[in-house]
Amino acid sequence: MTAIEASIPPLPPGEPDPSVADPQALLRGYLDYYRDTLLRKIDGLSEADLRGSRVPSGWSPLELVRHLTYVERRWLAWGFEAERVPDPWGDRGGDDRWRVPDGVPTADVIDAFRAQCDRSREIVREARLDAHARLGGRFPTEDEAPSLAWILFHLLQEYARHVGQLDVARELADGATGE
Fold first, then answer.
1. Tell me: the pLDDT tens digits for 16-36?
2. Positive/negative CA dihedral, 169, 173, 177, 179
3. 147: which strand partners?
4. Which residues are CB-neighbours of 53 under 8 A, at least 6 positions away?
5. Which CATH superfamily groups domain 45-174?
6. What is the pLDDT confidence band of residue 177, given thresholds at 50, 70 and 90?
7. What pTM was computed for the model?
8. Closest to 70 in 3D by CA, of 56, 60, 85
9. CA distances (Å), 35 to each of 64, 124, 133, 160, in order?
10. Domain-by-domain residue ranges, the chain?
């Protein structure tokens, strides 16, 4: 191993292999990486830390998980597939803040996130990146219907931003940093 090779840090767990060149495989791989990272970031937090906020805007880690569940649903199920989705904005309260309804167990929020990610993977599995969203769901006209490539890039930036926010919330909660 050369000195340069030795100085390159190892890839974080679950990140796609650097040899992957297929854009769809990279997008799917990085989305799964961020989905997994999100779950790793909340693992080990107390119920109080999952439901409490440490940031001025007031969101909690559990609210963020629920928000990303709805983001996946809005963009892929309702958006790309034009599926009928009850209450696509159900992650928000009347004040437009993310919410987890009172009495909803943490495990239910996490299970719903995992199930929605599974549904998203199913939608994307055979679809082409240049395919456009079906009409009739989130997008009523062809002019508004984005390509799957655009949607996946949008989801990727949502995850990158929100997992970064969760990094800060986790460090403030218990000092944990990194993966």
1. 999 999 999 999 999 999 999
2. negative
3. 132
4. 59, 60, 169
5. dinb family like domain (1.20.120.450)
6. confident
7. 0.91
8. 85
9. 12, 15, 22, 10
10. 45-174
